[in-house]
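Weekly puzzle thread! Below is a chain. First person to post its structure in token form gets bragging rights.
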Amino acid sequence: MILPLLHEKAIGTPFCDYLNLTSPLGNQELITAAIRPYLDTLGMSEEVEGLFREPLRGGTFKIHPRGKVCVFGSSGAFLDALRGHGLFNQFLSEFAAFDHRISMMHVTCDYGVDAPPVIDSVYALAKSGALHLTRKAVSARNVSRVTSPGQDGRDTGTVYLGSKKNSDVWAKVYDKGHEAFSRRGEILGQVVRVEIAVQSDVNATLRDASLPSDIFYHFAARSLVQAPPDYSGWVPHGHGFVLDEPRQDFTAYQRAKSILNSSLDFARFLKVLRDDYGSDDAGLAEAVQRLVGQRLRLGTL
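Winning reply:
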């Protein structure tokens, strides 16, 4: 039996792989000011107004108004960079200080299994009208797949489950190994990714973004995967998000160094230092000379 995917085949635990948060438009300036130190620390530059890009993997953070709210959008690569720096939960905590809502969240888990037969099985089950993400089966008319030959010649690809426009919950199951090799030449081996997307009416919270296992299994374990033995369920409007780790302080010097090392955004580099040094022109000049000198000595500027 191919489905559900066995828990013992899971690679790690579920994680948040995309996050859209909204807040009243009046909070945009304050939230942006709270978030900028994280972007600086990751060396992210503002490519166009409201679009910041992470230099290593191309992750993005977007800020844009939509009606009476402001949308703060975090890509999977950006969230992964935050986790790599130990900043993910601290980043989430900045939004906890404001009225906010999760308008879209993707939670994901990878499985070390042979992908092509899984893709076929998911598609067949969904097309038969027997695949569930919620109590109601996914409509067969909202099931589709995209396939192409894998490295071994077998057809593989992605199955899409549910309507992005009309569903509170939708999903996709895809050959992550094939996707990584096709796009980046990265060799992962046989990996299937199960990705669950929830929209605002599901009422996910920051706690679910920080600890996404419960919400992932609530939807994925109905047909796609096996829940772990200790899984006890999920409820909407979940409270209890706590930053249970020491906060990292962002010094202007550290932020400016990251900007210079990663993005060469000199305007932002100088602004961060100017805001910190104020009218101390001598201190500002010394900091600029020290940071730029380090890069010159390394031959990277």
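Puzzle host: Confirmed. Bonus trivia for everyone else. Strands lie at 10-24, 45-48, 51-53, 60-66, 69-74, 101-111, 143-149, 155-161, 169-175, 192-199.
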